[in-house]
Amino acid sequence: MDLRAYRAERSPLAEAFLEGCLPPADQPPEALHGAMRHLVFPGGKRLRPLLTMASAEAVGGSAEQALPAAAAVELIHTYSLIHDDLPCMDDDAERRGRPSVHVAFGEAVAVLAGDALQALAFEVLARAADTHGPALAAAAALDLARAVGSAGLVGGQVDDLAFDPATLSNERIESVHERKSAALIAAAVVGGARLAGGSDPQLADLARFGFEVGIAFQIADDLLDEGEDDPCSSLTVLGREGAEKRAEWWLANALDRVESLGSPAEVLRELARFSVRRDT
Amino acid sequence: MDLRAYRAERSPLAEAFLEGCLPPADQPPEALHGAMRHLVFPGGKRLRPLLTMASAEAVGGSAEQALPAAAAVELIHTYSLIHDDLPCMDDDAERRGRPSVHVAFGEAVAVLAGDALQALAFEVLARAADTHGPALAAAAALDLARAVGSAGLVGGQVDDLAFDPATLSNERIESVHERKSAALIAAAVVGGARLAGGSDPQLADLARFGFEVGIAFQIADDLLDEGEDDPCSSLTVLGREGAEKRAEWWLANALDRVESLGSPAEVLRELARFSVRRDT
After folding, report:
1. Chain B: nearest CA to A149, how far in angstroms?
2. How high does pLDDT run on average in chain B?
3. Chain A CB contacts of B86 below 8 Å
């Protein structure tokens, strides 16, 4: 199945599941629920949920099994965008061509909507105890919590905000990329295989694959954002051509990690290529 | 055992466990880890962890069994204080006689430290799968996630911020109290009994007890804050004497709920009285 067909078939599963996770916008407190939904729907490329579903299928499971992890990761991704856009952070008034949450709903509600989305992500995983058994649910919650805490997503964001151009090196930049972007992408990949009953060696390979895809993804983002004023960009040290090569190098490493999974992992590999090359 | 002796003996357990949960302040990113610790240590009265431990003991378990839930609830409480103090919320420059986190570390780090504390709370509960089994860990995570999301803590905070004095009623005020304060106190109580293997009927009684203590606690807070400019205070509708009576009424209801637990719940009842009367 090619990527376009895969996306057309699997995306509606994730959309429907996400829709069921979020309280209706007309349920009080309406401002909070509206703000929580504002960026989740229609959402972006849904790359993370697609990776989660493809990862479940790569270890012989189904996309349906992956849905709680796919939703949880997308809820976390959304909360992190809402908080990143705040005036005290990146101060972005727009996101995906619409007003940011703090512009549309006010700063206080934006902070709180992010907070509630994070809680909801863990609620969705904890509830998976009923469908997937408590061992898989607790393990998936632990994977996600580690990925998004001070050693992962949040720590990377702090280091990105405080990035000191005087100590610029590719190693420091990729350390931010690894935590700010790759940790959640790795959690997306691991979460799907975890809920589908993947073995420990498979989960370890998929975690490395996810990290490597995530770093390549962030370098590709840096290439698209060329000219923006962020010193923590792979381009500042490597230049355009060097960054392109580096992204391909990480991608090749990632693809090697899951070679042994064979043809069931073909869509997962296609998604990795797409994440980096954005060409389909 | 009287409350003073109980506190002297059990508080060090919770302090040591919390200390072990938080990354050292000299571990990078140092600003983030410093900000996460700023309000956790020395902390306040530690009422919630004490309730969690006493609840475990009330159902025949040990304070030690309750520690992951006690720590998780205290981490959530701390994150909510950090976010509440932000300029876009209550804009408080001080907390417990020290600079608020956003004053000491900047607004961006304060938002992110709160975010990381929430993730850490769920990490601590998910890790309890190793010590308490995955079923109790997943159930405790679900209890907490529900208590702190849009139907609980965060929803109450949104309604408190947007509180409309034109629609003032005791029912509306107590609806905010129930979510903003009581939901987390109920989660503290339920979490301890849950991790100590309490039965479903015990957990249901303790949940009601926690909610009722929590509302009484918030009315007592309103009484202490008399004169502050918050329309969402029980005093605005009930007056001082009425609010005192109402707090005692909720407290009496709460004490009734756990009457059947007998003498093992005596400390829990003492804590409830103290939460409301603040007289020891």
Report:
1. 5
2. 96
3. 108, 111
